[in-house]
């Protein structure tokens, strides 16, 4: 299951308005933002849109996070749900073995939330995967 996707946009305000309206009939809503000043270097400001299950603890939901596009940036950022921290580590190891580029070893990412455990890799074209286990997901 897809946990989250980052979409790089040229205008946060316009894009947030667009996605909010386009996804509202599907039960999606704005669900907050993340200020990069509270995290490590390289993590951008993020503006979230979530389905009606995401973050409730009632099931595994999905989210889209808008980020400011950087000059020359291309590619996709895709968060994939893992059932455990061990599954995060296994997926990360397999991706590295397959030639993936390390962008963050398996570890707690408490700057996002307590119980957020993830690892990050990139493929040969700069597309990025985050393997993530969230302790609050059932």
- Major sheet, described briefly? 9 strands, mixed
Strand content: 25-35%
CATH architecture: Roll
What is the gyration radius calculated from CA atoms? 15 Å
Number of domains: 1
- Low-confidence runs (pLDDT<50, min 5 residues)? none
Counting H and I runs of at least 4 residues, what is the number of helices? 2
3D architecture notes:
With 138 residues, the protein is an alpha+beta fold. The protein has one domain: 2,3-Dihydroxybiphenyl 1,2-Dioxygenase, domain 1. Helix content is 18%, strand content 35%. Strands 1, 2, 3, 4, 5, 6, 7, 8 and 9 form a 9-stranded mixed beta sheet that branches. Strand 7 and strand 8 form a beta hairpin. It is globular and about 40 Å long. The model has no long low-confidence stretch (mean pLDDT 90).
Features:
138 residues, alpha+beta, 2,3-Dihydroxybiphenyl 1,2-Dioxygenase, domain 1, 35% strand
Chain-wise SSE layout:
Elements lengths: L1 E8 L2 H12 L5 E6 L11 E5 L12 E6 L8 E5 L3 H13 L3 E2 L4 E2 L7 E7 L5 E7 L4
Parallel strand pairs: 1-4, 5-9
Antiparallel strand pairs: 1-5, 2-3, 3-4, 6-8, 7-8, 8-9
């Amino acid at each position: 299951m897809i946990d989250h996707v980052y979409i790089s946009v040229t205008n946060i305000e316009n894009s947030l308005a667009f996605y909010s309206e386009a996804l509202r009939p599907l039960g999606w809503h704005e669900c907050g933002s993340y200020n990069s000043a509270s995290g490590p270097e390289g993590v951008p400001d993020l503006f979230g849109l979530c389905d009606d299950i995401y973050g409730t603890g009632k099931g595994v939901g999905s989210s889209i996070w808008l980020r400011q596009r950087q000059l020359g940036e291309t590619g996709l950022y895709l968060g994939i749900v893992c059932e455990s921290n061990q599954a995060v580590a296994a997926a990360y190891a397999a991706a590295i073995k397959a030639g993936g580029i390390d962008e963050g070893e398996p570890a707690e990412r408490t700057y996002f939330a307590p119980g957020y455990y993830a690892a990050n890799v990139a493929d040969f074209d700069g597309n990025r995967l985050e393997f993530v286990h969230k302790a609050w997901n059932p």
